[in-house]
Amino acid sequence: xxxxxxxxxxxxxxxxxxxxxxxxxxxxxxxxxxxxxxxxxxxxxxxxxxxxxxxxxxxxxxxxxxxxxxxxxxxxxxxxxxxxxxxxxxxxxxxxxxxxxxxxxxxxxxxxxxxxxxxxxxxxxxxxxxxxxxxxxxxxxxxxxxxxxxxxxxxxxxxxxxxxxxxxxxxxxxxxxxxxxxxxxxxxxxxxxxxxxxxxxxxxxxxxxxxxxxxxxxxxxxxxxxxxxxxxxxxxxxxxxxxxxxxxxxxxxxxxxxxxxxxxxxxxxxxxxxxxxxxxxxxxxxxxxxxxxxxxxxxxxxxxxxxxxxxxxxxxxxxxxxxxxxxxxxxxxxxxxxxxxxxxxxxxxxxxxxxxxxxxxx
Amino acid sequence: xxxxxxxxxxxxxxxxxxxxxxxxxxxxxxxxxxxxxxxxxxxxxxxxxxxxxxxxxxxxxxxxxxxxxxxxxxxxxxxxxxxxxxxxxxxxxxxxxxxxxxxxxxxxxxxxxxxxxxxxxxxxxxxxxxxxxxxxxxxxxxxxxxxxxxxxxxxxxxxxxxxxxxxxxxxxxxxxxxxxxxxxxxxxxxxxxxxxxxxxxxxxxxxxxxxxxxxxxxxxxxxxxxxxxxxxxxxxxxxxxxxxxxxxxxxxxxxxxxxxxxxxxxxxxxxxxxxxxxxxxxxxxxxxxxxxxxxxxxxxxxxxxxxxxxxxxxxxxxxxxxxxxxxxxxxxxxxxxxxxxxxxxxxxxxxxxxxxxxxxxx
Lengths: 362, 362
Known about the structure:
The structure is a homodimer.
Chain A: H1 3-6, E1 13-18, H2 23-34, E2 37-43, H3 47-60, E3 68-70, H4 73-78, E4 84-87, H5 91-103, E5 107-110, H6 118-130, E6 135-137, H7 146-154, E7 163-171, H8 178-181, H9 193-209, E8 217-225, E9 236-244, E10 250-256, E11 262-269, E12 273-276, E13 287-292, E14 295-300, H10 313-328, H11 334-355, E15 359-360
Parallel strand pairs in A: 1-2, 1-4, 2-3, 4-5, 5-6, 7-10
Antiparallel strand pairs in A: 7-11, 8-9, 8-15, 9-10, 11-12, 12-13, 13-14
Helix pairs in contact in A: 2-10, 5-6, 6-11, 9-11
């Protein structure tokens, strides 16, 4: 595959979806609205499931040429009409498929948590570097224009001052057969449980607020977990962690599969405070809000309405930003770097929870 | 002093203020509006300062008979026209004066933190029990009718479910010469610093939410502290703590003298969430608000406007409730008990911060 082909055709990056995971429907629509990307293939071990997924998504957001349904992941890796992969596989499977994608010359959008641990993630990223493909994790909120507006607010010396404390909570209550059937509490596939699924966003938010400074030490506590079964360690069902940065700045977070939906963050400065009630997925992502010292700012996403259902502005921006990078032919080291930092802090929180003591980040 | 005299005259409890601390001005007005209490004496080591304090307070909230200015605390203890003392002395001095007040047959409203440690507080309470005087700490918000409305919300199985997590933050930024001159950062008088001054409210709120169940374990961390001086240990300037209750319920709090004013609490249930933005001192205490699942409830305090300045509804209720107890001639063990529990948790948080490990509550 020549470089030109690998980096899109006719100003569009051609995406292949690796698996028909539910979250892919939303991201299909995001790609559809991106303006610089299309979906050209969907791979599933069950080709019929792939066909149904495509038919269903095409009803909502129809690409001119319907994507191909491929019967294996290998076929997708070999496809000549695919530049980039969207990989929402379970965490335990990501290492293999990200490395294989990179080796096949495909750029990668990878869901979070990116890996089982930072050592695995470093291998994945080394493969991406070697093969000159872009890596980005699936933290959508990073791409909403609200982030820029919040950054300006945090930079406002007069109104906010210096950051001293960050607090974040992200939770939802698993219903029905969640605790029996959902992948997110399966120790073999998702050993970090709610910390991986929800804590990744909280840790990322704190690192963002701190301009990517790593904490010096972290503590973590698994408050409750699944019953151990078949030699598999318990998976966190609710988890609290704390990050200690140089200079007396600290962050505390809490995640849970056991309490109702909450997704707020609070950043405290020497003079003011920033609060955002929906930092992960804005309730209205076409006009996302945050508060500084009680005054509300609303940030328009710049995308028109989403007549085909739930708004996907920030997802759309993720695919647009990613595709801009791919089309540019340059690799941006920032995105793998922040994914790795997030993973390292997450690993340290888990290690602390297991050891019952503070863990230093080297 | 006979029991009748000790328990008020003409349906009013007669208060003596032990010191002219600034906070006394607010509580003077609270007593004034209580309907069942009056101030009859103010003691200061400097009798002129006492006279000025009285003259100033009388301008705002004039008692029919101006209180007497007494030139020593001993004189106040001996006064035959005083049933109860309000003691806002620095923490290190409270033990001596609460015990002496009890031995003089005076009921006691004591500012927080009540003591240097739980052992001291137990001695203070033993003295109160022996002398059959009522003890209550100065946590005003406990007396606002909002608390009852919030309790009903937490008890709502359908809307809130079971408590799993409590988070609270109380902070203000010390300005001017606060870090040099303010008593709250003097290690000899206020060794618990922001944990004593602000954390007391957060811990109390969590114990309240948990219906006075003690946590099984706590952790604490002094994030920054004063410089040690003259052999006096550093005083916490910002502090975070976490409480772990039986059954997987947990609480996290953060206090600081280094960030702008914040005073919020968040209680997460298996189904819903309660949020209060101003749990310590309602921004509008005549109509104090809280939110459950995003819907705002406002609780009228039932007191008329406060034409003489800042509203003091919850302070007024504190003195009214306390005076009701005194007038009843019965001692209510609840109030000393919750003060002691708060102190025990606070002590354990400090111990954990010093030792760098979890501390179990016996």
